[in-house]
């Protein structure tokens, strides 16, 4: 009974702020193939932009999940180290909310790049001439994400449209700053000032912000005077942006789970 209540809470909590129409559709876009999954997200209004649909169609989720039999479910899945690849409808949300900035030639940062799925979609959207940079603090995930990307998207790395680096994403990745867009894939405990600092004027950052009792998806649009316009979108539940050691402890103290 308790676990059912928790599940109902998480599902309604996660989908609260989507529009009334989409609220019913989130979590119901699973498919039996990658194409079916993306078509369902599109039919259900969770992808509205053709460019984003095409980018997601190009990046097969099965290349990035541990469980190949559940790759096309619209839910997060464990990728080890106490973290998950996000649900497909959250990947589409991140791309949709940043779509104006994910244009050919743009430079974008994916903080907490994990499986590498979203970074690969971003790289497709900003080429030619642009670059998507993933920053991930667990070396095992950095290596695995590069392996995942190399299965069908080695060209992105070879042509310099995609890089994954190991580092603490809370500090951004200063050597390639400023960015047109920054996506944060784990929850920041407060306003991510350092990341906002690394945005271009006119650039946009999207991040889940909060703690395990409550998080909101927030966008920050950088203004010419260096300040930002903040917009709150919806309640979400993400793993925290944390330090390496705490994450290893959470994953059972082992380096690999
Ligand atoms: N968008 C990714 C999300 C992975 S979950 C995907 O769908 O695959 C969040 C990721 O953030 C995890 O991989 C976790 O290891 C990473 N992370 C947490 N804290 C971090 C930090 N301080 N710096 C960099 N990465 C971090």
From TrEMBL:
Family of the protein in this entry: Belongs to the methyltransferase superfamily. L-isoaspartyl/D-aspartyl protein methyltransferase family.
Protein name: Protein-L-isoaspartate O-methyltransferase
Subcellular location: Cytoplasm
Enzyme class, UniProt record, top EC level: transferase
CDD domains referenced in this protein's UniProt entry, alphabetically: AdoMet_MTases
Organism superkingdom: Eukaryota
Biological source species: Adineta steineri
UniProt xrefs under Pfam families: PCMT
PANTHER family the record matches: PROTEIN-L-ISOASPARTATE O-METHYLTRANSFERASE, PROTEIN-L-ISOASPARTATE(D-ASPARTATE) O-METHYLTRANSFERASE
Molecular functions (GO terms): protein-L-isoaspartate (D-aspartate) O-methyltransferase activity
């Amino acid at each position: 009974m308790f676990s059912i209540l928790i599940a109902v809470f998480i599902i309604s909590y996660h989908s609260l702020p989507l529009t009334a129409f989409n609220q019913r559709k989130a979590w119901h876009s699973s498919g039996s193939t990658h194409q079916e999954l993306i078509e369902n997200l599109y039919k259900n209004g969770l992808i509205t932009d053709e460019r984003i649909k095409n980018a997601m169609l190009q990046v097969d989720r099965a290349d990035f999940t541990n469980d190949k039999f559940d790759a096309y479910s619209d839910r997060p899945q464990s990728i080890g180290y106490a973290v998950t690849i996000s649900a497909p409808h959250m990947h589409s949300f991140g791309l949709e909310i940043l779509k104006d900035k994910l244009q050919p030639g743009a430079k974008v940062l994916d903080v907490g790049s994990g499986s590498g799925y979203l970074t690969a979609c971003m790289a497709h959207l900003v080429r030619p001439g642009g670059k998507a940079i993933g920053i991930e603090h667990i070396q095992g995930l950095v290596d695995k994400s590069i392996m995942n990307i190399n299965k069908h998207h080695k060209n992105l790395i070879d042509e310099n449209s995609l890089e994954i680096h190991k580092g603490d994403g809370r500090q951004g990745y200063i050597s390639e700053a400023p960015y047109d867009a920054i996506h944060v894939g784990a929850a920041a405990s407060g306003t991510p000032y350092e990341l906002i600092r690394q945005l271009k004027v006119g650039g946009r950052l999207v991040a889940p912000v909060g703690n395990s009792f409550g998080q909101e998806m927030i966008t920050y649009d950088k203004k010419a005077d260096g300040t930002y316009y903040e917009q709150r979108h919806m309640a979400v539940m993400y793993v925290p942006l944390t330090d390496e050691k705490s994450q290893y402890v959470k994953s059972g103290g082992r380096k690999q789970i």
